[in-house]
Specification:
alpha/beta, Aspartate Aminotransferase, domain 2, four-stranded mixed beta sheet, 2 domains
Length: 466
């Protein structure tokens, strides 16, 4: 498999048909935004950790569909299983009786989890599965309030959005669900204060804040949080949509932390990067309290949840993760990535922190001292650091054939999140590229100069894709 970057093709003189159609019929503002700095590409093909665009250029994928492509793109074993499955004349949708594929997947999932997690509520997206956990908590406890964390991200449907830690994402849709209380991530005192004062159904929390800037909690935080929840009659819903299934170097993030969540939410990586599927897994005791009566069995349902194709994809994904020891690979490659970045960027005046776990690593960018420009124009420096630097670094990496993005709620944190199949040479290539690119910016003035020049150039090009 190639590890180089194909020669750059000539710049297109007109928008591609895909770009025009997408701008007209899907998301015009997104296409416009891609053109501001020249990030726009039309990706057309993918294999393992590699992507290709419509100009024939090759890219190393260090975004992995925001953590959805743990197996790498189009894993041949998963593709072969799905091709074969489509010839088996499976009953894809059945809502009038038990289905073999959902039952088999639920059993396989629970065998990999820890007691008492043993009942699965299937859905199609992470946000949908988070809402399944929220509904379960309300139905089981008879309470209505929720607690969530600043910087948290749990989805963009109304229920999940009510637990959104980013004001920009919430504001256009307010009022959202009442009784949703925000606390700082990692603050046990704040958690207990809300639990004491309110009838809380659930505390919904991530093992680390991925979109909030790759923020890790204090040691023992999640275990202590669950103890507080149980003390006050609330449920702990652990959102492992982005961290589950090997991403942090172990099969599930909660394992080895001394506790088992009351509800575990999985999505992204469960799909194998191909078929949408998600699940909220809970205990038989909680599920019985919520839906155990015959007049309550159908209070939570979804048309596509547990469909045969999604279950077949998820089941094969679990097997591949085990057979190829991808969690172990994530631990090794993640350590190489984190250690390599820390060594190469040590003392960099615009790198505030490098942090992460497994193959989810964040580089926080911005001034580390009070340089001249920072003293003369602190507002400008703050704006560039928070809104521009991460995107500019991602653009420069894209132009070197590496795809990555900042955290969606912290544009000053460059996130590196490759498929779990990544190899040492590919990790080394990214470390080298990041170090070289950031080496061009040891002060804010060169960054401002280059960004302003590029914006002007893109205006002349009318935001053309490059």
């Amino acid at each position: 498999m190639s590890e180089g970057v194909a020669p750059k093709a000539a710049l297109p003189t007109a928008p591609s048909p895909t770009t025009e159609r997408y701008a007209r019929h899907v998301n015009p503002a997104f296409v416009k935004l891609l053109g501001v700095l020249g990030y726009g590409r039309v990706f057309t093909r993918a294999r393992d950790v590699w992507l290709w665009d419509d100009q024939g250029r090759e890219y190393l994928d260090f975004l992995a569909g925001f953590g959805s492509v743990n197996l790498g793109h189009n894993h041949p074993r998963l593709v072969e299983r799905l091709q074969r499955f489509l010839t088996e004349e499976a009953l894809h949708f059945c809502h009038v009786g038990p289905t073999e594929h959902a039952a088999e997947l639920a059993e396989a999932l629970c065998a990999r989890l820890d007691p008492p997690l043993e009942v699965a509520l299937f859905a199609s997206s992470g946000g949908e599965a988070v809402e399944a956990g929220m509904k379960l908590a309300r139905a089981a406890t008879g309470r209505s309030a929720f607690i969530f964390c600043e910087g948290g991200f749990h989805g963009t449907s109304f229920g999940a959005l009510s637990l959104m830690g980013e004001a920009r994402m919430r504001k256009p849709f307010e009022p959202l669900l009442a009784g949703c209380h925000r606390i700082p991530f990692g603050d046990l005192d704040a958690l207990e204060r809300i639990l004491q004062k309110n009838k809380v159904a659930a505390f919904v929390v991530e093992p680390l804040l991925a979109e909030g800037g790759v923020i890790l909690p204090p040691p023992g935080y999640l275990r202590a949080a669950q103890e507080l929840c149980r003390k006050h009659g609330a449920v702990l819903v652990l959102d492992e949509v982005q961290t589950g299934l090997g991403r942090l170097g172990r099969r599930f993030a909660y394992q080895g932390q001394g506790f088992v969540p009351d509800v575990l939410v999985l999505a992204k990586g469960l799909s194998g990067g191909i078929v949408p599927v998600s699940v909220a897994v809970t205990s038989a005791e909680l599920h019985t309290r919520a839906y155990g009566a015959t007049d309550r069995f159908d209070l939570h349902s979804t048309t596509f949840g547990g469909n045969a194709l999604a279950c077949a994809a998820a089941l094969e994904t679990l097997r591949i993760l085990d057979d190829e020891a991808l969690a172990e690979n994530a631990a090794k490659r993640g350590a190489e990535l984190l250690d390599g970045l820390k060594k190469r960027l040590a003392g960099h005046p615009l790198v505030r922190d490098i942090r992460g776990e497994g193959l989810l690593v964040g580089i926080e960018l911005g001034p580390t001292d009070s340089g001249l420009l920072n003293r003369l124009a602190p507002g400008l420096v703050g704006l560039v650091s928070e809104k521009v630097f991460g995107q500019w670094a991602a653009l420069r990496l894209l132009e070197e054939g590496i795809v990555c993005q900042p955290a969606s709620h912290r544009w000053d944190v460059l996130r590196l999140e490759p498929p779990l199949t990544v190899r040492p040479a590919e990790v080394a290539r990214v470390i080298d590229a990041v170090a070289r690119i950031l080496g061009d910016y040891t002060g804010m003035v060169p960054l401002l100069r280059d960004v302003v020049a590029r914006v002007g150039e893109q205006r002349k090009r009318e935001g053309a894709f490059r």
